[in-house]
Amino acid sequence: MLERFFALRAHGTSIRTEVFAGFTTFLTMAYIVVVNPAIMGDAGMPVGAVAVATCLAAAFGSILMGLVSNTPLALAPGMGMNAYFTYTVVKGMGVPWETALGCVFISGAAFMFLTVIGVRQLIVNAIPRSLFSAVAGGVGLFIAFIGLKDAGIIVSNPATSVGLGNLTTPTAALALLGLVVIGALQAWKVKGSILIGILVITAAGWAMGLGHVASGAYNPSALAATAFKLNIPAALNMKGGLGVTLVEIIFVFLFVDLFDNVGTLVAVTQKTGLVEADGSIPKLNRILIADSTATMVGAVAGVSTVTSYIESAAGVAEGGRTGLTSVVVGLLFLVAMVFAPLAQAIPSAATAPALILVGSLMISALVEVDWGDPMIAIPAFLTVVMTPLTYSVANGLAFGITSYALLILLRGRARPKDWLLFVLGALFVLRFIYLAKG
Residue ranges per domain, the chain? Predict the structure, then answer.
């Protein structure tokens, strides 16, 4: 049955290979079960509930992707988008987390609508590919900065804005040890290095009294604290019309999810040899519909945007070629869901190194940027640098797209088909004006 459904022989693979690939992918991305609750917990959300919701969303998304598209893509709440959700939307803008979840749901619905009617392709073609890599790099720096701050390695300084913290404090010292442990494991190419590092530092943190296990039963029932708590009417601002700020939030959720998916799709499908001769990706609409559905289900469960994970490439490297790999990943997340609420006992000293090193993995996308061409390098640089320095993915996107539109206009390279790019640039300029007046 599995052979017929997933066409294993036609893809040059076997059940054993696909199962092993699924385990490999799961181990490389299992850190999200610990890191995502730590980040979203800063938004005031119940950590145990977010941990269960993270597993549920990852399980649903990965299994759906495998069954619908038959591609070895695993899904989970996206790193970067959870940081945007917490630190920009909830803490920066003061939006309640229930309303922010409503925005995530709406962005997923919008993603599906744009995919079904074909507008998605217009948007993808309008954005220069260099900015896809720049967004990933900028988000990587953003995540690393958050990890360094959480560890106390970087602290605020009135004279220089930021400065080096006291590295002898238990949290900072353990975080540095975590960097060494995870870094060494990655250098030795140990599968699940991030998860192993988190567990090692957690044990050390508990021994030093930095972590604690809260009272209460640890089971999937913790999900009740976040499930169906999203507030869509507030996200739509039904009483006062569609708010500009909330439109911006939905816009960022939608576009970063789009960027994440396209970048991951290109990377993974190239490694699997699934790209067509003309560069197109087979079953692209099915892949994007599965992703948008997973985002909406994740918002209902209580997590930020669900997206395809670049760690899927680890399973592909182990031979994964079909959706059976993704189904195995999803089943493993279901098993992890039983133990997920224990994530609230993980000290920040254990999750901070994971954030820093995940950031280092994401910034590798910058090698795809042609830094010798100012037309590409300047918008890419602005995207990368403005994301962490303004603590906002939205600002990074705005500077990158707007500067690129201006450069091709001033250089005389604007073409009629670039009309959507200029529309996006104009909208970002209006956004800056709106923020200045606010």
Answer: 2-437
